[in-house]
Amino acid sequence: MRDLTLGTHIFNPIAVKLNETEVIPAIFKLGLRYDANSKVSVFTETELENGENGILKAGLEYKMIEQLQLRTGFSTNPAKNTFGIGYSLDNIQVDIAIYRHQLLGYSPQFSVSSTF
Amino acid sequence: MKQLIIFCSLAGFSLLCFGQDNNQLLEEIAEQIAEDNDEGLDYAELYEALYYFSENPINLNKPTKEELRELYFLNSYQIDKLLVHIERNGKLLSYLELQTIAGFDVQTIQNLLPFISIKSSVTTQQLLANINQYVIVRDQFYLQEQRGYIPDEDENIHYFGNAHRTYFKYRLKNNFLQAGITAEKDAGENFLGVNQPYGFDFYSAHVQAKKIGKIKNIILGDYQMNFGQGLVMQSGMSFGKSSEVINIQKSGNLIKAHTAAAENLFFRGTAIQIEPLKNLELIFFLSSHKVDANIVDTLENDELAFSSIQGTGMHRTESELLDKNVILQNHFGTHVNYNYKQLNLGLSYYKTKIEGEYQKNISAYNQFDFYGNSNQNFEIDYQYLYRNMNFFGEVGRSKNGGVAHINGVMLGLDKTISASLLYRDYGEKYQSEYANAFGERSSQNEKGVYFGLEFTPNHKFKIKGYADNYEFPWLRFGVDAPTKGNDYLLQADYKISRAIKMYVRYKSETKEEELSESTAISGKRKDNFRFHINYKEGDNWAFANRFETSLIDFDNTRTNGYMLYQDIKYKPLFGKFSFTSRYVLFNATEYVNRIYAYENDVLYGYSIPAYYGKGSKIYLVAKCNVIRNLDFWLRIAQTTYTDRIVLKSGWDEIDGNKMTELKLQLRYKF
Questions:
Q1: CATH code, domain carrying A52
Q2: Which has the least CB within 10 A, B281, B420, B610, B628?
Q3: Longest dimension (CA), chain B
Q4: Which H or E element spans position B319?
Q5: Under an 8 A CB cutoff, do A72 and B421 touch?
Q6: Strand locations in B177-248, DSSP E?
Q7: Over the stretch B470-489, which tens digit does the pLDDT of each residue have?
Q8: Using CA atoms, how far apart are residues A68 and B458, in angstroms rounded to an integer?
C-alpha cells in the first residue's frame, strides 16, 4: 500500500527559438509522490526554469471518503498557499481550488473532467 | 483484540528501556525541547514540571488534562487521543499499548515514560503523605570587575549593590498542595540596604490547592494563566514556531503558580477553578500588582503618567529604583469552559484597570497600541477532535474594537504522515497585554498561513518541515510600510542506534525590512544550516557536536557566521559525581549573524546565549551529591574574544577580552 512514485518532466531541452532573440526556456520538473495509505498522499516537486530561481512545491491530499478529496500545499518563488476540494462521481471529477498569493490575494479555480 | 494489538506492537519493534537513568533522560528531554525552541524562553517552569513528575509520575489510568498539559512535549491532539483511548478501552494494561494510540510515535513514548505510571493501587492517603520539599540557594557573578562596580575619581560607585546575582527558592509539593517562595537579587542590586529594607529586591510566593471536591484548583499569591490559543491570555511559557512542526496548538485552560524569578508578566492575587457541573469549568481571577514604569508626568488627580512598562526587573541605581513598583495594575476576569464529548468551548473576559495613565510616544506605526487607563478583552475559543483531525481556534476582541482570530487543524493522517495547517489574522488595532498567540511577533498586525508536514517512514528516520507565509498589513517598528515574509524549515532526523542520533536542519527566512540609508523596503534573507549529533559511549559517557552557519543577505551585502561545539558529558549510573562540559568556537562578526544554542546549566537554571563576535567559550557544569539529600552544583563559563578588548557595554563593561562567570548552587531535599 505504501508507495513511492518518481516523475520527471523536461520541457524544451533543445532550446527552441521563437525568433533570433527570443528563446523559449527549458523547464525541468522533478516530482515525488508518496502514498501513505489508500487515503493519504504527499506530493513534492521542484521546478527549474532556465535562467530563473528554482521553485519548491509540496502538497497533501486526504480522501475523507473515497469520493471526497481535501488538498493543501504551498510553493515558493513566489510564496503561495493552495487549498482544494475534489469530488469524484462515477466518471466525472469536479475540483475547486483556491490559491493565496501574499500580494495578489486569493484566486479561485474550478475544473470538471470526465473519463470515458 | 487488545492482546492482539499488544502482540502486534511487540512484534513490530521494542522500544522500552527501563534501565536508563531518569535524570539523564530528563535532561535530554528538556534539551530537546530547548533545542527546538532556542530563543528567549523561560525554561525554569519546564524543568520544575518535568522534575516533579519524574519523582511523582502521573497515573496514566487516572490522568487529568491539566497534569498532561504540564508535560510540555505532549500536544492537545495526543492528550485527547490518550484520554479517548482510556475511556473507550479501559485501563492501560501495559506501556506498550501507547503505541496503538494515534499521534504517539516512538520518541513521544520514550519521552513520556519517565513521567507516568500505570499502577492504580495508590491511595489518596499515600498521595497526601507524599510531600516533596526542597530549598535552593544559588549565587552567580563575573570574576572580572565591571565598570558599574568600580569607584570613580570621587569614590562614587554607580551600582548600589554588589555584582552577585543571588537566588533563593523554597518549594513544597504533593498531588493536592503546593506552596513556594522565590526571592532574588539581581547583580548590582542592594541587599538589606537603605534601598532594600526587605533584603532581596524581588519576592514571589504562592499557595495552591488542587482537587478538593468541586474546586479543581485554587491559588493565592503569584500565578500564570493560559486560555484558548493565547489571543487574550497566555502569560506563562509557550512555544511558537519550532522544529516540532506539527505541534502548533496551545493547550490553554490552565492556571498555575508563578514559580520563576521573572519579575514581569504574572498575576498577583487569587485565582480559582471550579467544576460546578460535570463538563463545565469556571475560572475566576483577581489580581493587583505593582509594576515598573517609566514616569513622564504627574496628572491633575495626582496620578502618574508613564510612557512604558519596564520588564527588566533591574533596580541597581537611583533612577531604576525610582521606576520600581510605581504603577498599580488591577486585573479581574473569568474563563468558562464547556466540554461535550470531543468538543471543547471556551469563553473569557478580563478587564485591566491601571492607576495611572499610559501615555505612549505615538507615531504612525504604534498609533493603534493601547493607551489610557483601562482595557477589556473578550475571547471565544474552541477545540474539536473529529476522528484523526483536531480543529482549534479562537477569536479575540479588545475594547477599542480590534479583532484577532486564529484557526488551525492538526492531522494525524497515518502512522507515517502528520500535518498541520493554521491561518491567523490579527488586526492592527487588536490589543492585549497578555496575548502570545502563534505568530511571528506580537499578536497584532499579522496575517499568515502556516503549513507543517512530518514524515516518519520508520522509527529511525524522520523528515519534517514547515512553510509559513505572513504579512504585516500595517507599519511596524522601524519599517514604515506594510511588509511580508516567508519562513521555511526542513529537518531530517536519523537515529542510527539508541546511542547515536543526528539531525540536519535548514531554516530560511526572508522578511522585508527597511534599508538603512533610505525608507525603501527590501527582503532580508537569513539562512541557517545546522548539523547536530549525539553519541553515547557505554553507560557513563555521552558526546555531542554541532556545526551551524548563519548567512544573511540584505541590501546587496552578505555576511556570515560560524559555530562549532563539542560537548562531553559524564554521568555514571551510580555515582555521586557527574559533569557536562562544552568547548565552542564561533565567528560571527555581525550581530545579525549571531547563533543561539542551548547551554547546560545548574538544575532549574537555563542559559541560551547568542554567540557572536569572534572567540571561544568553554564551560563546565559539575554536580556532586554531597550527602543523601544535599546536592551541589558548580558552573564555570569563560568566553574569550579575539576581535575586541572591551566586553559588554555601558555600566556592565568589562575591560579585557575575557569574561568568566561562576555559578554555585545548593539544593536540600526533605
A1: 2.40.160.10
A2: B628
A3: 84
A4: helix B318-322
A5: yes
A6: 177-185, 202-212, 215-226
A7: 999 999 988 999 999 999 99
A8: 29
